[in-house]
Design brief:
Blueprint (H helix, E strand, L loop, with lengths): L7 H8 L3 H8 L7 H13 L6 H8 L4 E6 L5 H16 L3 E6 L4 H13 L4 E4 L9 H8 L4 E4 L9 E5 L1 H14 L5 E5 L5 H16 L9 E3 L7 H12 L5 E4 L2 H13 L1 H4 L4 E5 L13 E5 L1 H17 L9 E4 L1 E4 L4
Parallel strand pairs: 1-2, 1-3, 3-4, 4-5, 5-11, 6-7, 6-8, 8-9, 9-10
Antiparallel strand pairs: 10-12
Helix pairs in contact: 1-2, 5-13, 8-9, 10-11
Organism: Sphingobacterium hotanense
Pfam family, one: Peripla_BP_4
GO molecular function: DNA binding
């Protein structure tokens, strides 16, 4: 028999097990012993067995597909999160369908409701910057739709969350800038509505307080679309150019790259010796000009943990869920002089 044509029943017959035992072993069920799981998985790997998601879905009344909603797929951070999600989904025989909102609440709701109407087994979501009404999401959750939020999470919904240690990241960013001699530190932030923006602002303030520095509201600029629109960043930079600051904390991947682009066009700022700390998961951080100290998030791990929590909830549907908030660390990468 060709290895490409082994079925679950073929594997069961060869290993002298029941088809249900083989199926549970492949799904890593707690009902199956570790020895039997190893036997089944080793043989399945040997013959290159892949489950048929359509047949399996029809039998179990599941689609074996999950939806992903992010603001922008091209964002370095979100693309790495998606890689983490797919690494888990593939191993568990789930397909993923990805959509982007471009920070629009209307698009976000359109995608979510479309996924729901297509009987997706669950959703993984990072909220858009325009989002404020989450009543429709609450309604879906109450109907039994598993949703795991990551990075940008709603405050009130009962769900799993996977986030970055945003307060710690901003706090450490400010500490680094002060160590470099900065006395007046600016903040370029995304929308005030977003959970991660709020947490990073809080950490920024705590960092200043710990160093006995005054928080100056005029040195804080918000970009409601998080750097998706370069014009927003240009406007913020033009405002800051009129003020006296010697360090800046950039609170997002797109804000960091957008700030560096804007800086090249602002002659006045380009000549000033400003220390820069910014969130970025770009692999090109070493060649940024001017050089920056980067705060890197655990993006791939965030995707993995979010996918694991979602698939666990999907496969235990009907059982009571103890919702978790997973907080992942960041890494501060000092630029080489």
């Amino acid at each position: 028999m060709s290895q490409d044509h082994y079925t679950l029943k073929d594997i069961a017959k060869i290993l002298k097990l029941s088809p249900s035992t083989v199926s549970r072993a492949l799904r890593d069920s707690h009902e199956i012993s570790d020895e039997t799981k190893r036997l089944v998985l080793d043989f399945a790997t040997k013959v290159n067995y892949r489950a048929n998601p359509l047949a399996r879905g029809l039998k179990e009344r599941k689609s074996y597909s999950i939806g992903i909603v992010v603001s922008e797929i091209a964002n370095n951070f979100f693309s790495q999160v998606i890689d983490g999600i797919e690494s888990v989904a593939y191993d568990k025989n789930y397909q993923v369908v990805i959509s982007q909102t471009n920070e629009s609440a209307e698009r976000e709701r359109f995608h979510v409701e479309h996924f729901y109407s297509r009987s997706m087994d669950g959703l993984l979501m990072a909220m858009s910057s325009e989002s404020s009404d989450t009543a429709y999401l609450e309604g879906m959750i109450k109907k039994g739709m598993p949703i795991v939020f990551f990075d940008r999470v709603p405050a009130t919904l009962q769900s799993h969350r996977v986030i970055t240690d945003n307060k710690r990241a901003a706090y450490e960013g400010v500490q680094f800038l002060v160590k470099k001699g900065c006395k007046r530190i600016a903040l370029l932030s995304s929308s005030k509505k977003l959970s991660n923006s709020k947490e990073r602002l809080e950490g920024f303030k705590l960092g200043l307080i710990s160093q006995h520095l005054e928080f100056d509201e005029k040195l804080v600029q918000y970009c409601e679309y998080g750097g998706l629109k370069q014009s927003e960043i240009d406007q913020a930079i033009n405002h800051l150019a009129e003020l006296d600051y010697d360090g800046i904390f950039l609170s997002g991947d797109k804000l960091t790259t957008g700030y560096l682009q804007a800086l090249r066009r602002n002659v006045r700022l380009a000549k000033k010796p400003i220390e820069i700390v910014g969130f970025t998961n770009s692999n090109l951080v070493d060649i940024f000009s001017p050089g920056i100290t980067a705060i890197r998030q655990s993006a791939f791990e965030m995707g993995k943990r979010a996918a694991e929590l979602l698939i666990e909830q999907i496969e235990q549907r009907g059982k009571e869920t103890n919702f978790k908030t997973v907080v992942l660390p960041v890494e501060l990468i000092e630029r080489e002089m």
